[in-house]
Each structure stands twice: as structure tokens, then as C-alpha cells.
Amino acid sequence: MKTKSLGGRRSFLKTSAGVMAAMPALAGGVHAGGAGTIKIGLVGCGGRGSGAANNALRADKEVLLHAMGDMFPSQLENSLNIFKKDPELAAKLNVGERKFTGINAFKQVIDSGVDVVLLCTPPHFRPAQIRYAVDKGKHIFAEKPVAVDAPGVRSVLQSCREAKEKNLAVVSGLCWRYHNGKRETMARIHDGQIGDIVAMHTNYLVGGLWHKKREPAWSEMEWQIRNWLYFTWLSGDHIVEQHIHSLDKTLWAMKDEHPVSAFGLGGRQVRVAPDFGHIFDHHAVVFEFKNGVKVFSYTRQQDGCFNEVNDFIMGTEGTCDVMKHQIKGKKPWGLKGRSQDDMYQNEHNELFASIRAGKPINDGEWMSRSTLMAIMGRMANYTGKLVTWDMAFNSKEDLTPPSYEFGQYPVPAVAKPGVTKFI
After folding, report:
1. Residue ranges in the chain modelled with pLDDT below 70
2. Could you please report the per-residue DSSP string of 356-371?
3. 23 and 160: one domain?
């Protein structure tokens, strides 16, 4: 099965600046300021994609699921069957024959007449998908992270700037930014309720995740895509795919100023079987900002260990427990009643409301910055070097495989700090 042709990111990066300069701003988005049915396309029908479509279909009274796309037919059908079992969602299904599979299913979904596309495939594919959706004038919901390497981040930044020129919405799957309790907590941090930030500590310590046993009929490439979590070219490693949520909150606290450097340590200690690809199972990274603030970040996917997902911000006049919405110090404060806020629904509610209002949200800058921060941490741990922001942003490491053909594709060696080179 030959499934090549996502489009070259390198050639895109060379031409996009000129295209941007020559492009006139469009005077309104799809359905801006008016009524009418909004047609949704889902790309990536796994658990997260199905969840995103569920939220999107509940976010607006006049929406229809118009098209679906996935690499694998069975996954698409499973997702569609879930929607059919819910009476509220079933009434908003109009997929018909618009069910597309294979590497270029995203193009077929986008070209099918949709207004909004939900991009929920493994992260590697996100830059090409975002670029194509913007080129075609579609509003976007993009799951996190938006890339797995620096060329991908640069591509997404260009695409999102073009989306802004076209008055297109780009909403990020970094969902904590859409949690009302976190918003109020961060507003108090920004208003100085703990004084000046001096340090942050963030943990994403959890057990192991799922993996799918290899079946005889699967090629190496298919097996890797079905187990995308465990391959850096597909997921970015779990520091990028999962811990990005924690790192994004630290950037948010810093008003989206990026760190200037990072160093750390990590490895593959427990999850060492070939079933788990070649990513690390633990990372610890220290990020430093221009003003001297340091973020001490830890993430681990190992069974039988202490688990915690939380963020702590230390200031000159107090401390904040972000997940508990609690401040201690000179100006104590605590939030009650919003800990169960549905941030997943909120992000889709706000996406569709912004489209209706003709004032589309564009999260492109900060979602790209958070993605690069996570990639920067991986670079530091894989190489064992101190990596600066400029090094990370300008990195030439492109994790794109030579082909997407369903055949043999060797698993890269596990990175060795001090041996693996920075590219």
C-alpha cells in the first residue's frame, strides 16, 4: 500500500513567507455573524478524535458531522457507531458515503465541503493537515501537540499567521486554557496575587499507557502508526505528547514568554521491550527564562510508582497550587465549585461561538510555542546538552520518514545522552 504525499514541509517553509506577504486579508469567515448549518469534518477517529467530535456536535444547534477520515477503516466505523448510539448525536450525522481512509484521508475530508475540521490524528501529521486546511479556507480544531520537530513548528506558525489573515479560527486542544477555574487562577497570578514569580515546579507522573500487540498482517510502518505513542516521529515522545499540558501551563503563567534554555536528564528504564518503540519512560528538565525564573518539570510513565499531576508556582508573596485553585501567602485565595468544569466542551463552545460572531479565535502562536518548549526539553534530554530556545527553533532535525508506504521502516535507536547529536 503506497500512502505517500503529505507535501514537503521544507518547500513550504521556503515559499510561505512570500505567499503571506502577497495575500490580502479576507473580510469574514465561514458563517461569520450569521445563521446556517456548519458542517464538521473529523480527521482521526480514535478516542480523542471521537471525543472532540462529540463536543463539537454539542457546541452549536446547527452543526452536522459531514465527513470522517482515518488511516484505518475499522477505527472510523467504530467511531461512527458510537455516535449512532446517542440519539442527540445521531440526529446530527450526515456522513453518508463521505468516509475516507488512508494517509491522505484528511485532504478528502477537507475537500468534501466542510466548514470546520477537527484534526486529531497522531501529532506528526498535524503540520501538513493544518497547512492544507488553511489553504482551503477551513476553521480548525487542532489537538495537541501541533508538531514533533522544529520544522513542523515553523510550518504551523506560518499556517496560523495565514489563518489570521484569512479570518479563520484555530483552536488548540491544550484544554486547560479553556478551564474556567484555571483561567481565574492564572488571572490572579498575572495580577500579582503571589507577587513576582520566582520558580515553578510541575509534575506529570502517571503509569503506563496502552499498546497494541503486533499482528502478522501488519507491516512495520502500520505497527508503528497503530502504536504511535512510542515513536518519536509520530508522538514526539511523551514529554511532547502528554507533558505538554504541564509545560503549557507554565508558559501561560509567564504570559507566554518563552524560556531561553533547558537542560535535563531522562531515559528508558522500565519500559524497555520492543513493544514500546524507542521513546524514554521518564524525563526531568529545568527550563530557565530570561528573568531568571526556573521551571523544574518532571514526567514519568512507569507502573507501580507515585503518581501526581499538578503545578506549583512560587512567588515573592505567596505560592499557588494550580490544580487546586489555591493561593497561600499574603493574599490567600481558593476557588470552589469549578473544579469539575468541562474544559473539553468549553473549547468547542467557544470555537463555534467565535465563528458565528465573525471573531474567530486563533491560538496559533501560543500552541506552537508550547509545542516547541516540549520539543526543546526532549532535545536536551536526548542529547544531554544545554539547548537554547534559538537552537531549538532553528533545529534542522526533521523526523519525517522518507515514505509513508506500508512496508518496512526500522525503529530508530534509543537516544543516548552525551552520544546522540543535536541537529
Report:
1. 1-34, 337-340
2. HHT---B-HHHHHHHH
3. yes
The pLDDT value given to residue 33: 53
Residue 399: the pLDDT is 97
Residue with cell 461561538: 353
Q: Strand pairing partners for 387?
A: 262
Give me the number of domains the chain comprises.
2
Question: To which H or E segment does residue 170 belong?
Answer: strand 170-172
Residues 162 and 41 in one domain: yes
C-alpha span between 234 and 227 (Å, rounded): 9
Cα–Cα distance between 38 and 188 in angstroms, integer? 36
Helix, strand or coil, per DSSP, at residue 313: strand
Q: Which three cell numbers stand for residue 54?
A: 462529540
Could you tell me if 234 and 88 lie in one domain? no
- What number of other Cβ atoms are within 10 A of residue 341's Cβ? 15
Dihedral angle sign, alpha carbons of residues 383, 385, 386, 391: negative
Owning domain of residue 376: 180-336+372-393
DSSP line for 14-38: HHHHHHHHHPPPPS--TTTTS-SPE
Report the pLDDT value the prediction gives residue 270, as an integer from 0 to 100.
95
The CATH code of the domain that includes 241 is 3.30.360.10
Q: pLDDT by residue (tens digit) across 294-341? A: 999 999 999 999 999 999 999 999 999 999 999 999 999 998 765 668
Do the domain assignments include residue 135?
yes
pLDDT at 1: 35
Residue 421 phi, psi dihedral angles, 5° rounding = -90, 145
Query: How high is the pLDDT of residue 34?
Result: 62
Q: Please check whether residues 163 and 276 belong to one and the same domain.
A: no
Q: Kindly report, residue by residue over 92-112, the tens digit of the pLDDT.
A: 999 999 999 999 999 999 999
Residues 206 and 321 in one domain: yes
Query: Are residues 265 and 379 located together in one domain of the fold?
Result: yes
Any domain includes 399: no
Report the CATH number that the domain containing residue 127 is assigned in CATH.
3.40.50.720
Q: Tell me phi and psi for residue 315, to 5 degrees.
A: -125, 175
In one-letter notation, the amino acid at residue 14 is K
Residue 123's closest CA among 416, 313, 417, 400?
400
pTM attached to this predicted model: 0.91
Task: Give the type of residue at 36.
Answer: G
Would you say residue 159 lies in a domain? yes
- Separation CA 413–CA 35 (nearest Å): 53
356 residue type, one letter: R
- Is residue 36 domain-resident? yes
| Amino acid at the residue 230 | Y
